[in-house]
Amino acid sequence: MATISLDPRLGFQTGKTHHQHGAVIEEVEGIIKIYKDGHVERPPLVPTVSSAVSPELSVAAKDAAIEKFTNLWARFYVPSHPAGKLPLVVYFHGGGFCVGSAAWSCYHDFLSNLASKASAIIVSVNYRLAPENRLPAAYEDGLNAVMWLKQQAMSGSQDQIWWSSRCNFSSVFLAGDSAGANIAHNVAARLGSLRPLCLKGTILIQPFFGGESRTESEKHAFQPAGSALTLPASDTYWRLSLPVGANRDLNWCNPIARGGTKAGEFGAVLVCISDMDILKDRNLEFCSAMAREGKRVEKRLHNFSIGKFLKTCTAHSPEKPFDSDNLLLNFGIVNLLTTTANSCQHTNARSTSYKLRSDCQNSELTNIRSQVCQINDLADGGIPCL
């Protein structure tokens, strides 16, 4: 769960209090309250915004319904340039599985910026939240969203032509931050045949994993005042989101337990690790376990707290827009997707393999390339389509 700085002006009362719904039985202070009768309260931590995008980004954005029964929908971001087919990124927001929205202003700003800078089509999935919908509900929503995209690729629906006509369905990434990264990983583990879609990789930004045994970073990492990612908060998110009776060694939570990294075809895996967060050691253990299983994995460790991603959310205003450039630069996400997009211009559309290339140049990204590692070696030998 990325850090959220709480704003006392929200007027959300904290502490174990009685209420018309009974006593508070679970709480992440200032984030979410669960009452005895099952009532859930979430304060308006982050503004929700429409799909409108700042004109200078040259990105069109619209919301689309995916499944009415579960109210599953997604926000699409489609850059107007460059011409031609663009990679597709399916993105899952963070929030400990319990809070968050594809309409949150910080995610809207981040993903519209990413679509513009990386020249990629972004699909931001608004999945069901716990505890009303415990896992695997979020995984099912993620899988249904990918299968819906597959259907659009096969049917060529006129309703979705505005984005599908620009999409290179043979270059698909799953991505997310925190709980969203956990969802991306677990959706990838569940995928069967995706043709004509082809999964090239997963991008996991500080994936939210846990376990019964404590890691050193969980025990000793310093967390700032107002952080939503204390160890007790992390435990609470898992209690609220895992199936009743399950513990934190369920491989949805602890993917290295009982061979949880063995299944699935993940493509190349990029793991962005925040050096200042309690999840650091679990993320490093996850990378090692994936590598032992022969998965193509690259880790990016940076002295940049992913907590800064949401820390400024409550201070967001038109005069001080959310700045996501640091996240994109420090972890090289733009570089990865732009290299992929450029490589697609040199790859046969019918090819069943793909290689991230270093020889595709983009003058606007020269400074980024000098700061981050390339992921080329990770995909050496090609990534098979599923």
Stretches where pLDDT is under 50 for at least 5 consecutive residues are: 1-16, 306-323, 343-386
Gross morphology: globular
Structural class based on helices, strands and sheet pairing: alpha/beta
The spatial strand order of the largest sheet comes to 4-5-7-6-8-9-10-11
Number of E strands? 11
- The number of helical segments is 11
Helix content: 25-40%
Radius of gyration: 20 Å
- Mean pLDDT rating: 79
Q: Approximately how much beta-strand content do the residues carry?
A: 15-25%
- List SSEs in N-to-C order: EEEEEEHEHHEHEHHEHEHHHH
**What distance lies between the first and last C-alpha atoms, to the nearest angstrom?**
30 Å
**Largest beta sheet, briefly?**
8 strands, mixed
Question: How is this structure best described in words?
Answer:
This protein is globular. The chain starts with 23 loop residues before the first strand and ends in a 17-residue tail after the last helix. α7 links the parallel β10 and β11. It is 27% helix and 19% strand. The protein has 11 helices and 11 strands. With 386 residues, it is of the alpha/beta class. The longest helix is centred in the middle third of the chain and has 19 residues. Pfam families: Abhydrolase_3. InterPro entries: AB_hydrolase_3, AB_hydrolase_fold, Carboxylest/Gibb_receptor, Lipase_GDXG_put_SER_AS. GO terms for molecular function: hydrolase activity. This is Alpha/beta hydrolase fold-3 domain-containing protein.
